[in-house]
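Final report, section 2: Outcomes. Of the targets proposed, NADH:ubiquinone reductase (non-electrogenic) is the one most frequently requested by collaborating groups, and we therefore present its record in full.
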Amino acid sequence: MIIGSGFGGLTAAKTLKRANADVTLIARTTHHLFQPLLYQVATGIISEGEIAPPTRQILKDQDNAQVVLGDVTSIDLEKQVVHSSLLGHDYSTPYDSLIVAAGAGQSYFGNDHFAEWAPGMKSIDDALELRGRILGAFEQAERSSDPVRRRKLMTFTVVGAGPTGVEMAGQIAELANETLKGTFRHIDPTDARVILLDAAPAVLPPFGPKLGDKARKRLEKLGVEIQLSAMVTDVDRNGLTVKHADGTIERIESWCKVWSAGVSASPLGKNLAEQSGVELDRAGRVKVGPDLSIPGHPNVFVVGDMMAVDGVPGWHRVPSRADATPPSRSRPSSRGAAPPSVRHSSSSTRGRWPPCRGTAQWSRSERSSSAGSSPGSAGWRCTWSISSASRIAW
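The predicted structure is given below as tokens.
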């Protein structure tokens, strides 16, 4: 049995394709999510379907594998049973060998109430929520005659200067300075203020000073304001409070806030530790052996963002898998095309389509359509809209 359909779980399932074993993969979603590109969904560069192919579709030709939907609530190591729930019904599934790849979630460092006002970016729902808030901020500013309110609406704050935060801040700045430039009548999107904050003294601290300095200069060139050694102490509807290294307190009025400051491993790690005595690190990751098993249970393995392992030659722990890609600025020439890593999940005609810039997505025109037509010709149009899934508190 495999818990989780992320990189670790899906790789494990595919690796067992020719094994003499029945493979059951259980996950809380029906798709595999390519998390490194969530920030592009959040800013409308790509659609959510391009980074979330159905797990069953991926494994449909693997005869020894089945996918079941469910939220794993606990693991009984003694009885070798996984307990899960789905739509109010409880299930118990026995296993011979278990691979736990339940990943990690957003960490607010004990301030979970921040989540209401500063969403993280760990799921498709998170990205769609942020897309609505980001684009909604410009739309509200367009209709507001109050300069103070406009300034708050057009101030975007990103907490956390790791890869996700760097990418997000840069993409919002590019959205304001390039994609939306000249498209509004009552506001100038280039007046938007994008602020990147981190309690650490450097950008991209896990990647060393050379890369961090390069990312900082690139962001500053895009117009992003960077505040380092700046700890966010409070977040509310209208903004956030920051404590700087010299002890000064600053209040930033900002309607749209993004949280990318930390991760914590799945609570299943604690569940395993309580039964087996295995150690957890500060982020809740399970300290496994060189073969990724937990002590006393050679048939139970922990992989991906849930695991912590030291002392293995050639192995070095990196930040969360979702944050494992270097910062990059999407090139306009590739806009509208599926990212190479997930291109298999999009239309076979995608490669023929001209780029669709910024927050735009290609869609079939309701007024005219012709078989075989492509974007840029009759029957197609380039458009964007606020996500209907967003739950915006206007």
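Residues 2-28+70-106+263-323 form a domain with the FAD/NAD(P)-binding domain fold (CATH 3.50.50.60).
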